[in-house]
Amino acid sequence: MPQDLKSDRKVDPASRVLSLVSHKLKTPLSIINGYTEAILSQLKPEEKDTFNAKALSDISKQGEKLAILIDKLVRFSGVSDLSKEDVKKQDVNVKGLFSSAEAACILRDDSLSVMSSDATIRRQGPAIDIKCPETATIFADKALVSIALEELLDNSIKFNNNTVKKIKLFYYEEGDKNILAVADNGVGIKEEDISLIFEKFYQVDDFFTGQIEGWGLGLALVKLIMNAHNGAISVRSQYGIGTIISLRFPKQ
Question: What's the CA gap between 137 and 159, in Å, rounded?
């Protein structure tokens, strides 16, 4: 996508195919998931340990995962088709952006576990630390920046093998730029991969095994969003130690 997002630009044929495929998949999957949930909800207590019940439960879980993947396709194709007029910039509170992205990603994180200790139940998940002045703002499209932050947080959680996943969201100013950054203690990125990670469908070889769910579109989506804001992305990473990805927004 060109930096100035011309409204009369040609639509990428690949993005058009993604949009068509994702919408064609969405309706039948919604029906499958809906009927599966309905059947599970009507099971009698004595039926819940049967093979059929367990099979339906697995179908439901996998259907939910597939629905998330399809939603990501829909999201990517939607952002790909943005025109300059579609980007609605306003002053947006950064702390609010960080908090909303944190809440959304924790809800989607399936690595969370429930632990009981001293009659208390706690959810164990990623430790997300937000460092940002209460009054800090950026001039941007709130919905688009929220998507970008959620994608970066999702990656920080997925590509992290540590027992305690530490993630930091922080804001700072640098010259004429407002910067939102996401830092993690994940697996890191090899130097030779950094120039490739923003390409569509690219996944780092170490994780291209089917174990990490996704299309390899998350960072490509973030790049589209930053281009739409005439912004930029920078990456600092040490393989095996962690990564910092910074979103650089021009000041108003």
Answer: 29
Q: pLDDT, tens digit, for every residue of 159-178? A: 888 888 889 999 999 999 99
> Cα–Cα distance between 197 and 188 in angstroms, integer?
12
Pairing assessment for the beta strands 120-124 and 113-117 based on DSSP bridges? antiparallel
CA dist 1 and 225 (Å) reads 10
| Torsion sign (Cα): 100, 201, 70, 13 | positive
Specify which residues 127 forms β-bridges with. 166
Choose among 197, 94, 196, 192: nearest CA to 155: 197
**Position 146: which residue type?**
S
Those residues with Cβ within 8 angstroms of residue 19's Cβ, 6 or more apart along the chain or in another chain: 73, 74, 77, 78, 80, 81
**How far, in Å, CA of 48 to CA of 15, rounded?**
43
Helix axes 142-158, 218-228, angle to 10 degrees: 150
Q: Which residues of 24-49 are buried (b: 16+ CB within 10 A; e: fewer)?
A: ebeeebeeebeebeeeeeeeeeeeee
What single-letter DSSP state applies at residue 6? -
SS3 (DSSP) at 122? strand
Whether the model pTM is above 0.85: no
- Better pLDDT: 238 or 214: 238
Taking the mean position of all CA atoms in its chain, how far away is CA 176?
A: 27
- Structure token pair of residue 178: 């407002």
Residue 77 tokens, joined: 């194709």
The stretches of 81-201 forming alpha helices (DSSP H) are 94-108, 142-158, 191-194
DSSP string, 34-70: HHHHHHHHT--GGGTTSHHHHHHHHHHHHHHHHHHHH
Give Rg (Cα) of the chain.
20
